[in-house]
Amino acid sequence: LGLNIITLVTLLITLTPTLIKSEESINVLLPISLNLTVLTDPFSISAASQDFGNITDETPGAVLCPSSSVEVSRLLRFASGEFSYGEDATGPSPGFKVAARGQGHSLRGQASAPGGIVVNMTCLAKAAKPAAVVVSADGTYADVAAGTMWVEVLETAVERGVSPVTWTDYLYLSVGGTLSNAGIGGQTFRHGPQISNVHELDVITGKGEMMTCSPKLNTELFYGVLGGLGQFGIITRARIALDHAPKRVKWLRILYNDFSDFTRDQERLISMVNDIRVDFLEGQLMMSNGFVDTSFFPLSDQTRVASLVNDHRIIYVLEVAKYYDTTTLPIINQVIDMLTRTLGFIPGFMFMRDVPYFDFLNRVRNEEDKLRSLGLWEVPHPWLNIFVPRSRIQDFHDGIIKGLLLNQTSTSGVTLFYPTNRNKWNNRMSAMIPDEDVFYVIGLLHSAGGSQNWEELDNLNDKIIHFCDTSGIKIKEYLMHYTRKEDWVQHFGPKWGDFLRRKIMFDPKKLLSPGQDIFS
Ligand code: FAD
């Protein structure tokens, strides 16, 4: 009798489902024997429904705040039907999708899981043992919990005098989030994107398998996951390459009124391989029909910079940086002099700041603080990020920048404009770039609000894409969101077959990152 009661109680526990209801009454059923606690309170649900883009609102059924990778594996084993109740026992069937969420800085619900379960990767990073960021004894790499923000990686690494080599402009993004896209910025031309600087990953596939992968081990998974938009597995740990961390940075903004001079100098600087080459290179446009931010420049020069923009309607800003520390201190000014002597900028319009390395990398944080204080951070962001082949950059400039943007009554947000090198990208990775040695990163970082609504800005984006299509400019979008399968097929082009094959290998039930809308 004793044995029967125990069996009965065990069976009952196994069979009793937890019923979780979301606001939209989409149910997520988890068996108690999974031993997972999920959050369904309004705050957790609302936070997981939105993202930085502030355009979509996708309600998940629940949020998992895992304390170990094993919990994530268990969740995915159940969701994919790999979880066994035992021979005679039955329980709820899964019917939900799963999305990892880092910092939710996606633009169009890419980190959402409507009606499913969002895995809060910050919880996993907080629970990481012995720490979320562990620098190797020789300082050549760090093992990082994927929910960690890059700013935290930087903080820990610089204490040991080392640093990752390649960065995004903004550091409050999770390691897993940027590795699922590419992670690009002003060091990409020299060191490649962040996905090119990873030695090894721990990944939990859509079937719940926990796998380690690298360029030598489980290579299909490794290359698939890098730039893989969360489709093949949830990254839990990344081994990131490190190098010496410089102490200080000479940070320059140099102004041009001639587009050919601007791009010629940018391209020359990214092709240099000698000791005086720059460590960072980007570019921006200042347009008279937009907000002209002169805060970088000395107070005494701000008015003449603003007048320059007014007079020319558009000014091209070359942004470069050169790192230095005590050993290079005596010659850094000579190096800067050599670097800038041959550049074709407007005489008298080169400005330099001298800042600590950390502050340089964390520069966008100040912009965030400013925008937050003005109530302009939590507004819709219909950003358009594209890669444009170098051979067509003049056509893009004439048609889009001069022909379209300068003729708008107003423009909003920052416009990034800089070239980078293709040879720093590995074609086996999922990320897509144009098929040319040099291509430009164009970021139209629109902010809606005030007189402009996001739909108008979205229409503008459509016009830009349409112009490129009809002019035969073979762009690739970055951080894109397509809803039609044919657009994804076109985006991946020759790599679509590999993408699909890897999906079937690692996430055959198509559970992961449904917010990307690739397989739904
Ligand atoms: P989330 O939005 O949380 O997730 C993005 C996608 O990755 C989702 O599909 C999600 O399911 C998936 N994902 C998240 N974590 C994991 C994981 N551990 N394993 C598997 N899949 C996962 N990008 C650049 O390249 N360069 C920049 O300079 C840059 N600057 C930015 C500045 C700002 C202010 C913002 C808002 C974004 C910027 N981005 C930049 C874009 C950014 O890299 C992506 O939006 C990135 O996804 C953000 O990381 P996240 O942690 O917020 O990801």
From TrEMBL:
GO terms for molecular function: cytokinin dehydrogenase activity; FAD binding. GO terms for biological process: cytokinin metabolic process. Belongs to the oxygen-dependent FAD-linked oxidoreductase family. It is an enzyme of class 1 (oxidoreductase). Residues 1-22 form the signal peptide. The lineage of its organism: Eukaryota, Viridiplantae, Streptophyta, Embryophyta, Tracheophyta. Keywords: FAD, Flavoprotein, Oxidoreductase, Signal. Its EC number is 1.5.99.12. The keyword Hydrolase does not apply. InterPro entries: Cytok_DH_C_sf, Cytokinin_DH_FAD/cytokin-bd, FAD-bd_PCMH, FAD-bd_PCMH-like_sf, FAD-bd_PCMH_sub1, FAD-bd_PCMH_sub2, FAD-linked_Oxase-like_C, FAD-linked_Oxidoreductases_BP. It catalyses: N(6)-dimethylallyladenine + A + H2O = 3-methyl-2-butenal + adenine + AH2. Pfam families: Cytokin-bind, FAD_binding_4. Its cofactor is FAD. It comes from the Eukaryota. This is cytokinin dehydrogenase. Residues 56-245 form the FAD-binding PCMH-type domain.
